[in-house]
Fold this protein.
Amino acid sequence: MAVTKLSISLDTAALERAKRAANAEGISLSSWLSRAAEEAADVAESRAALAEYLAAYGDPDRDAMATARTELAELGTGQPEPVDQISARAAALARLRGQVPPQRQAE
């Protein structure tokens, strides 16, 4: 990854908050600011894409949105997942990637 050095100015309070956040995550301020810039750019691009979609197709139909929300809720989409399922999926993916040996089931 190419890195470009630059000089920026930040509000003192914003700088202190960024330093605390980076320190809490155990990463450099530069890494934290780079990630924050990426996240902010993602949000800006998402907003632009939404505005483009709405300009082309208009606002979504309320009844269709309600139906879609109901169908998604019935499928369990967007609902909290039990920890044991999260752990089982993570272990299965790790085994598929060859990262850990498969565990034997208790006999």
